[in-house]
Amino acid sequence: MTRGVTTELAVLDASELTDDPELEVRFAASAHQIMADLVSGGAALGWVEPPSRDEVGDLLGQVVSAVRAGDAALRAAYLDGQLVGLGYWLRYARPTHRPHADLEKIAVDAAVHGRGVGRALATALIADARAAGIEVLTLDARGDNINALYLYRSLGFTEYGRLPDFVAVGERRYDKVFYMLDFRRQG
Q1: What is the pLDDT of residue 2?
Q2: If residue 32 lies in a helix (H) or strand (E), which one and from where to where?
Q3: By CB count within 10 A, which of 77, 120, 147, 160 is most buried?
Q4: For residue 51, what is the DSSP state?
Q5: pLDDT at 1
Q6: In angstroms, rounded to a whole number, what is the distance separating the alpha carbons of residues 86 and 73?
Q7: What are the backbone angles phi and psi of residue 117, rounded to the nearest 5°?
C-alpha cells in the first residue's frame, strides 16, 4: 500500500455479483485466476493441480444455483475494484442436516494475505449463515494452514476432530482438521 493512499475493501454477495452480467463474467475469470495461482503455490483448496477455467466456472455455477435456492451464500472481496478473494458455504443436503452448512472455501489472493480480506469474507459468510437460520457451520482445513486455523479460532470456531495424515499431496501427508461454529450456543 502506498503511503497516504487509502484502499477500500468491498465484500459483495451473490446477488450483487450476478445482477451485472459483465461483473459476473469478470468475477468468474478472476476467481479462476486466484484459485489456480493459490493451488500452484501449494494452497489446500481441494485440488492438487490448478483447476481449469471450466472447473471453476462449473463450481461457481453450482454455488450460485444453491444461493438462489436458499441453500448457500457466496461472497466476493474487491480491493480497489479488483477481485482479491471469495468464499462460500453450502447447506447440507440431507433432510436431517438442513439446519447445518459447511463453509466450503475461502480463497484469498496471496498478494493481499494479512490485510483482513479472509476475515472480512468469513465474517460476512458467518452473518449470512446466521441470517439463513443455520445452527451449526462446519469446515475442514489442512493442518498446515496455520493462518486459516488461527482465523477460524479467532472467529469462534472450535476443533471437533482431526484425521492425522489424511490429506495426500504427492508424498506429503497433512492432517485434516474439522472445525465448527455452533450458533445454538451463542444465543
Answers
A1: 42
A2: helix 21-40
A3: 77
A4: P
A5: 39
A6: 11
A7: -70, -45
Domain 9-186 has CATH 3.40.630.30: yes
* Kind plus residue range of the DSSP H or E element containing 115: none
Q: Which amino acid is at 28?
A: A
Under DSSP, the state recorded for 50 is: P
Give pLDDT, residue 4.
45
pLDDT at 52: 96
128: number of Cβ within 10 Å: 21
Per DSSP, the three-state class of 117 is helix
CB contact set of 176 (below 8 Å; sequence gap of 6+): 140, 141, 142, 143, 162, 163, 166, 167
For residue 80, the SS3 value is: coil
Question: How do 82-91 and 72-79 pair as beta strands?
Answer: antiparallel
The closest alpha carbon to 52, from 17, 76, 28, 74, belongs to: 28
Are 84 and 112 contacting, i.e. CB atoms less than 8 angstroms apart? yes
